[in-house]
Amino acid sequence: MAADGQIVQDTPTSQPDSEVELEVLARAEHLRVIFGNSLSVLLANLSAGATLVAGLWSTVPHERLLAWLAVLAPFHGARWIVTRWLPRMPPNVAALRQQEILLLAVTALSGLLWGSAAILFYVPHDPAAILFLALILVAMAAASMALLAFHRFAYPACLATVLIPLGVQLASEEGSTIMAVALLIPAYFSLLFILSRQIYRFTYEAIVTALTRERHALVDHLTAIPNRRAFEEFLAREWSRGVRTKRPLTLIVADIDDFKGYNDGHGHAVGDAILRAVASLFRQAARRGTDLPARIGGDEFVLLAPETDRRGASTIVLNIERSRDRLAQNTYKVWPFPTLSFGRCTVIPSDAGSAFELFEEADAALYEAKGAGRNRAADCTAKRAPASYSGVSATPSCSPPCLAESLPQHAESLPDSVGSGALLGGP
Prior knowledge:
By secondary structure, this protein is α+β, with helices and mostly antiparallel strands. The chain is 59% helix and 9% strand. The longest helix is centred in the middle third of the chain and has 42 residues, at 176-217.
């Protein structure tokens, strides 16, 4: 705390809309578009391959045409089978890099297959066959731009592997018509390449803008942690997952004691600083990637911890209180750092209950703790919580609603905990 009583808030090391994270998500969305249209790519390649074989059937040896088609069809069939599942993979950096390498590899191999047709099916001194072959290859390379433009390097990889063999063959041919085609193709695809870069830049900026707006809509701007909307969406998803897995779900609801008095007595700047500090305590307590801290309004905070039992919920609360005491002891005594009250509820989700009921039970436990003297934590006896998690027999309601326990004034005396709580299967 500074000399004037202001809390010095540490800047979070990872902002939800950081440039690195947004870049990863935008690139992942580009790949999702490309891989999501893998069936269209398969059908386009099979149709173009069959058209090429049929058009050159009378001028190129049949076994050569059929052998090429026998390689093209299984390759793109396998490509479709593999890439159709990739959009479901999580968009982390390692997975993204693997997917991009896969995309470039299959794109280059597909281009080599079509580029090999320029060598295998080239009929010297036959303008009709040459122009037909060039038409099919140019059409395939041009059509692929619409999809491959969603990646920075995929379209150049396709162009190089298809057009270089074709250009070499056309350059060796005599005749003004063939030479004109050989000169026009590079100019044509140079314009397409420029257009593909503009498409990539436009879609990238549009995706980043949409992601930023969505992130801002889910983040509390004062505290930089998720807001109520994000919490409600996450709670609904975790409740549905808990119904399937039959694993416990813990919700901790907290309130700053006498927060209005701090706002009225010391000003809103101090109140804002307290809110940011408490948000930092909850962010630190959410040590697992599956835990979600959030500010759901005013001076009320929550922490949702999937697959965490009642013992783990108690450990999380004690960790928060220990950090609060350390923060209070390391500040000047211009004014005392406020205490917190907690309501805890652990249930095993089922179709008979709802996520809203879980929140109501945890919130009722919070008000029981505040009514018992504040600076306390209260456990709710949930309707769906078995005795192994509630500590008492399951009852239709909390009557008495909660068992309130006073939090120790000096959390340093508490034993250190492991992780974010006593998780199922843990020590």
